[in-house]
Amino acid sequence: xxxxxxxxRGLIVLGTIVVQMGLGTIYTWSLFNQPLVETFGWALGDVxxxxxxxxxxxxxxxxxxxxxxxxxxxxxxxLLAGVLLGCGLIASSHATSLTQLYLLAGVVVGFADGTAxxxxxxxxxxxxxxxxxxxxxxxxxxxxxxxxxxKYVNAALIAEHGVSQAFLYWGLIVMALVAAGSLLxxxxxxxxxxxxxxxxLGRDFSVREMLATKEAWLLFMIFFTACMGGLxxxxxxxxxxxxxxxxxxxxxxxxxxxxxIFNTAxxxxxxxxxxxxxxxxxxxxxxxxxxxxxxxLSFMSLTPMLFFVCVSxxxxxxxxxxxxxPAIVGDFFGLRNHSKNYGLVYQGFxxxxxxxxxxxxxxxxxxxxxxVIGVMSLLSLxxxxxxxxxxxxxxxxxxxxxxxx
Length: 405
Description:
Layout: H1 9-24, H2 30-40, H3 44-72, H4 74-92, H5 98-127, H6 132-161, H7 163-182, H8 207-211, H9 214-244, H10 249-277, H11 279-299, H12 304-333, H13 338-345, H14 347-362, H15 365-386
């Protein structure tokens, strides 16, 4: 059963980091909004909708990624996803209508990105079941680092070659990164009956079994809340800085870079911390801080410094939530079906991305949205103080007496 050659887990970590950095570059989309408006004369809101489609398509892809991995294997699936991602961006360089942009940069790019994101993350966690929080932080932190570094790369490409050609070069670079990283990956096979959790309980729920528990739906609610607050604020932080805090455009633009830094820091710091103090306690902390920050944004007179502190807190907490949740799903429902199970919970990301914008557009703008996020954060905070891993062993688990330490 054992391979004659020991597996170098360090190379798998390196490969995952390279892949995730390539995938994270999609979070530089805001750089393309204004140049596309100036080039094609489209409305800014219509162009910005592209990234909402990308985020929703990314989340949707996680529903199918686990089954695709079972058929193709982690290395081949990641390679194909990287090629599709690159081709979607390259084809976007020829887009001349919003429909083409939505299909290529939205649906195709989002689906390819989400497929590689969830499977490489889950695979890496399986290699390090004893350090799920830290490893999740490294992987998801690399995703955030990719967005931070490529802010400068893509800005330079747009300035040097124009927005359409920038898509071409961006696609080629991302395709090369993801393809190179995929070559270092190795699938972690978890045979039936083998415990994969550090606790030794080895409780592995199928998708159907997970959905039969109330805990799955409560986790979805918490994740939805965390994503709605983080994604809404990150998407419009520049506009809020100008309108609510009286910032000039240059200062507000610098806030975007600060958010990327705090978002990435939260992924690494809170991911590692969750291994030591407990994952749900970390989520309780992030929801409390988010509640305080959005309450401040809603009810206090904002100075540029106070605004900066609030959005930095929200970005830090959002990064931590995105990192800790994959490990929580592993703790609650096992690792064998992790990519499929987390894929379902991860729909909170896609729905949360749309919910904040929908509430703002139809129910009163910034302040109303902040108040809804605050109420949801309070409710979700209370849930985190009460929720525990499901006690019911799945029906398919044989010989339960051997699974207890």
